Amino acid sequence: MRRAGPSGPVAPFFSVLLKSGVAAAVLLLAACQSEPMGGPLALEVSASNPVSALQRVNNAGAKCWIRSGDRRFRGLYMIPELDTAVGKPRLLILRSDKKQGLPLLVIEASGPPTKIVTYGPLASGATGARVNADIMRWSSGPDGC
Hints:
Elements: H1 11-31, E1 41-44, H2 50-66, E2 76-81, E3 90-95, E4 105-110, E5 115-119, H3 126-139
Antiparallel strand pairs: 1-5, 2-3, 3-4, 4-5
Helix pairs in contact: 2-3
């Protein structure tokens, strides 16, 4: 019994064509994503100490994320933990309806040299990309939304 489909020297050509077509389709779908994806941030900043770096992010973040009515941050609130005798200062972003839950995002500073890192479930999506871009901008000077 003979197998259906191309055979002989033409078969490898169709196999390569099929594989490249699938690869092209995957690339096209990836290119169609409307928003960039985020990820954990590790950024060295020019701040005198970790607390001052996070105070800047806290002030701008409260204004531009939490109080702005931005849909990405609706239902969230931010807790600054800047007065730490032990450990690293950090900002926690949690759901408003879960006062005792795990944070969705942690923004933490350490140093010297002063370094800001972000992690948590919120860091990995499009909101994480926005957070990272905002932190990088605020750390370099401008504090606008």
